Amino acid sequence: MGLVGSSTYSRALLQEWLKDFLPHLLGHNGNYEIIVFGLLVVLLLHRTGDGLLPFLARMLPSGEHSGRPATAAPLPRRPRPVKGESLLVIDRISKHFGPLIAVNELSFDLQAGDIVGLIGPNGAGKSTVFNLTTGLQPATAGSIRFCGQRIERLGSREIARLGIARTFQHPNLLADLSALENVAIGAHLRGHSGLIAASLRLERAEEARLRDEAARQLERVGLGSHLYDAAGSLPLGSPRILEIARALCADPLLLLLDEPAAGLRHLEKEALATLLRDLRDGGISILLVEHDMNFVMGLADRVVVMEFGRRIAEGAPHVIQSNPAVLEAYLGGAT
Q: What is the model's pTM?
């Protein structure tokens, strides 16, 4: 019997069974099997939207999906700069989109061991600064130096290789892949196996090291119990933390975080702040865009404020909170 014939026979058999069973269960006669059968089909489509085989694969136990990956030799780490050393220098950088000036001669710097908050009203140009720094968009004018090297004309892969990693305002994850697989993608630039080695499965030792690194970073950010959960099934707020783990897999010296606390609850924000301080103490400097002012002011060593693409204030959090220009930008006037 062919596949189609077998499927039709099974459906007819189930329908007949329901027709005989439901009247005994409900105590009434009627075409209840049509209703129940329809509900079963809706449930099946809801739970197996990507097909039956992936659904069954997730349900069945597998040695690959039990426990932490086998520990492998750790990947090499970059040397960390000395605390206080100049790390990122943005000098009169501008970005024009036709007549629109998104960033207008912006200048600020960041030293190794610092957490710097980049804040401003919506449309101030903060995410554009991130895009210019990470090579997603070319600058119109000005310069960006990282560890003394000009990077404003480099591509995003070259900049990532130098030690800058970022997260995005809207988490960009592969929902059907596990948390471990999503995070391991962040370490791909640290691998050296080419297409031929991958095709012949000669890169297994390196793959084990990348997966072990991903597991380490997931445990570091508090998601060690979700290694094999599909990224799309993680609790609310976890995708942003997952993106941080993926960025950490690149072994960055500078981490750019675009609204990492958005959607997090109070205790989750406290845990995130603790994590970011630990990362700073471990030699990773942080440039942070965030709209939660309490979060920024309680975390950042220094704050840069933008409005209409320009820097309007810079300083310690307690100084920024009483700056008249900042109050004007946020509140429409000093109060």
A: 0.77
